[in-house]
Amino acid sequence: MGQDGTPSGDLRVTTRRPLREVLADPTTRLTATFLLIPRLELVELLANAGFDAVVIDLEHGPVAVAELPGLVAAGHGAGVYVLARLGERTPATIGGVLDSGVDGVVLPHVDSADDARDAVDSARFPPEGSRSLNPYVRAAGYDAAESFLTTANAGVAVLVMVEGKDGLAALDDIASVAGVDAVFVGPVDLSASLGLPGEPEHPVVLETVRDLMERLALAGVGTGIYCPTPDAAARWQRAGARLATLSADIAMASAGFRRTVEELHDLNTEGRSR
């Protein structure tokens, strides 16, 4: 079920609450996945499978900003939220991605309150920030009314990624920055920063994430988190994560392909043994 009570994967246009408003609700439990293959068919398949959101990965996926409008349109048509994870936090990059009409941005390697303030500033129109306005982009409906500045500021979510020791040390300051809608935890990079590379399920990493989520909850800020498995996603959703980003399109497709071939091999082996 989607946040508005409609099935996530019915491939119909739905009217949804702005993502920023949804993430402000402590009862929110959205399930997303990373999209690294920039195909609208995959966006629709993920929506049809029941995901509430997709996070288009411009940091690690071969996705160009020019491909975003079609992917965003496919996601919105299918009734899911569409976010973009950026590879950099420059104002021009943030503004260009937001012009495509995404519901939110996930901004990497935020290590201080100043980093968080700069990110929010780049994502909000004046007077809340310094985002540049072009009325002829998709996010503005190609012909912006005056209300666009207000609705964009009220609706577009800014999620900042805490992935290292500096970010952990500055977590309370980061969470206090006005306009930060959620802190997105990257357990893979976090495990490396804790001296446990490639071990996001190590007890030390898990305890660090639990502590982080508790501190964010006390600050009234939502948590987003990458979850490699359904077990991890269920664990962090029970702990209060408002956006659990489960696996990635490539990982799930690869696992499905392998299972299908292995099933065929097993059936052929059974047939020969009879």
TrEMBL record:
InterPro entries hit by this protein? Aldolase/citrate-lyase_domain (IPR005000), HpcH-HpaI_aldolase (IPR050251), Pyrv/PenolPyrv_kinase-like_dom (IPR015813), Pyrv_kinase-like_dom_sf (IPR040442)
- As recorded in UniProt, coiled-coil segments are none
State a GO cellular component annotated for this protein: cytoplasm
Q: Lyase: present as a keyword of the record? A: yes
KW Lyase (keyword) present: yes
- What family is this protein classified in? Belongs to the HpcH/HpaI aldolase family.
Domain (HpcH/HpaI aldolase/citrate lyase) spans: 39-233
List the Gene Ontology MF annotations in alphabetical order. aldehyde-lyase activity; metal ion binding
What keywords are annotated for this sequence in UniProt? Lyase, Metal-binding
Q: Give the protein name, as stated in the record.
A: Aldolase
